[in-house]
Amino acid sequence: MRFLLPLSLLVLLAAAYQGGVSARRLRAARAQGPGDNSPAPSETKTPFWVRINPKFMAVPPGSSVWLNCSSSCPLPEGSSLHTGLQRGQTLSGSSWVSFQLLNVRAWSSEVHCFVTCAGVTRGATARINAYERPHSVILEPPVLEGSEYTLRCHVTHVFPVGLLVVTLRRGGRVIYSESLERFTGLDLANVTLTYAFRARPRDLWQPVTCHARLNLDGLVVRSSSAPMTVFAWSPASKALASTSIAAFVGILLVVGAAYLRKYLLMRSRS
Where are the beta strands (DSSP E) in the chain? Predict the structure, then answer.
């Protein structure tokens, strides 16, 4: 009888252990849910970058360009391009997409590229400037009209006119400058600047030049004309010059007469 009590205790402990194991397995099965035999995935967020190339372009108006959007995401879920420009063809690879943009005419446009990776969306931005350097800057010879001289400067085939500044210089000094920001057209244009001024005697033979400058958001494009010379004076300037010359000639005559008289006196004494 003394062996029956330990044997009974062993049977009870084994039954309790099997019941505990069965309960733990039942709770684990309930946690996984029906039909789910794989462990729950752990949530990971891998950092990745997005690049657009080139980031800046300056092209003639009406051009077509290509932009490449790439990322370091191993399995991108999607990519997109946001822009107001007209789109053309699209080429793609495992981690990049190239977009064609047609007929770029706005002087400055932003293009945004977005890539989604593991539920996270990131983007990059590029800028496209459309401009046309002036084909020519021509300064006409100064024309005398009444008592003033008129200068005419022609800037041809330039875009965008709204970002153009035309400046007139005489002898290296600015005599007039005008910004044409009121013009908002999207086509090549010809611009003529007219300026009238009174010439003074000191302006004689001073070179006059015309300068065109495009300010394109940090990019500055400059063009200049050949120099012209103010070769005559206005009537008022002529009158002043005539008076000055007459006075100078009078002084010479007085000085000459004095020397002649002195010379004659010396000869008479000798």
Answer: 50-53, 56-59, 63-71, 78-82, 86-92, 96-104, 108-117, 120-130, 136-139, 143-145, 148-158, 164-170, 173-179, 189-197, 207-216, 219-224, 228-229
CA distances from 124 to 2, 109, 177 (A): 85, 14, 39
**Tokens describing residue 223:** 């063009």
pLDDT at residue 175, rounded to an integer = 92
Closest to 107 measured CA to CA, from 211, 210, 192, 218:
218
Q: What is the pLDDT of residue 100?
A: 95
pTM (2 d.p.): 0.59
At residue 3, the pLDDT reads: 43
Other Cβ atoms less than 10 A from the Cβ of 87: the count is 11
Tokens describing residue 220: 């500055």
pLDDT along the chain (270 residues), means of 10: 43 46 47 42 64 92 94 90 93 91 91 93 93 94 84 94 93 90 85 88 81 86 90 54 59 68 69
Q: Give the whole-angstrom CA distance, residue 194 versus residue 151.
A: 6
Distances (CA, A) of 100 to 58, 112, 225, 261: 15, 13, 38, 94
**Using an 8 Å Cβ cutoff, are 123 and 50 in contact?**
yes
Whether the CB-CB separation of 156 and 136 falls below 8 Å is answered with yes
Query: How many residues would you count in the chain?
Result: 270
Q: Residue 220 and residue 213: Cα distance in Å, rounded?
A: 7
